[in-house]
Amino acid sequence: MTPEMSTTAAIMVMARNLPPKAFSFLSTSEWILHSEVERGQKAFGGRFLAITMIAAVIIISGVIIIDKVPPRHHHSHPPPDNYTLALHKALMFFNAQKLLPPRWDKKFSFVQVLLNRLRLFLSPGHPAEDILLILHRSSEIMMCSYLPVFTSFNRTKGGLIQLNHGRPQPLQYVVNAAFLATLYSDYLEAADTPGWYCGPNFYSIEVLREFAKTQINYILGENPRKMSYVVGFGNLYPKHVHHRGASIPNNRVIYNCKGGWKWRDSPKPNPNIVVGAMVAGPDKNDEFRDVRTNYNYTEPTLAGNAGLVAALVALSGDRTGIDKNTIFSAVPPMFPTAPPPPAPWKP
């Protein structure tokens, strides 16, 4: 960018900080200045920089003086174009969603972490870089909020992060956060980035993996009750899971929805073990009630198990499995390849 163009850009920035009454005047002035810069670059070269700066001072001063004079006529401002309005609404949604915990009906956390791949591995440049940088910064803030050194979320005495702020069924949020933290650390490692900043402090990617491990280990039995919240894992796990397939016996009798209630309300352990199902989890005091009728403790969900599987895969094996050179090109096609064409027809 030439000095003349830099000056014009600075003028435009200053103009946008002026009172609203000056907008209509400045829109014309900006156009005039931009045109004069183009002509001046050809006619005067570097000497035009001083002329442009003087013109800027005169115009800005004139606008300020105009703003001091009471207007005689009221000029309505034109409504924003559709793109500006859409961007404004999108940013409102973005700001409202960016620190919500990842869950089945709130996908923003997942999407912004996935979009970090584009910025870290492809460097798309302008204009995509602007919005990707915003999402990258938001991802960093989210990762900072998971660290115990900050107080964004409470933790139980046993160490379970309360992403849903002490409300029931906490584990589905925890496993998804553990997955995202591990995935984000893998992205940074693949991009040869050792960590990220939380304010002025730098944190290693190892901190994220440690967060994920402690949360998953809690779920698998390293908690005050020494209970695994994954059915069939360990020696102590829930026996009264809130699940029809687990609680209704396989006695070749077809039960309708209402007919299955007697099994739901039975105090006996489940006749069938739904191996691998993660229940809703303990409360904010690390307490757990193994009661089938209380789904806030004993209900497994697809959203919870999806996050559990993802987190376990991310934490298993040797470090990251991310290959930044093939992460986009190695995706298999969505449809099978077309069959070869038939042989040429012959009479």
From TrEMBL:
PANTHER family: ENDO-1,4-BETA-GLUCANASE. Residues 103-312 form the Glycoside hydrolase family domain. Its EC number is 3.2.1.4. The lineage of its organism: Eukaryota, Viridiplantae, Streptophyta, Embryophyta, Tracheophyta. Keywords: Carbohydrate metabolism, Cellulose degradation, Glycosidase, Hydrolase, Membrane, Polysaccharide degradation, Transmembrane, Transmembrane helix. The chain crosses the membrane at residues 48-66. This is Endoglucanase. The keyword rRNA processing does not apply. GO terms for biological process: cellulose catabolic process. Belongs to the glycosyl hydrolase 9 (cellulase E) family. It catalyses: Endohydrolysis of (1->4)-beta-D-glucosidic linkages in cellulose, lichenin and cereal beta-D-glucans. GO terms for molecular function: cellulase activity. The active site is at H242, D290, E299.
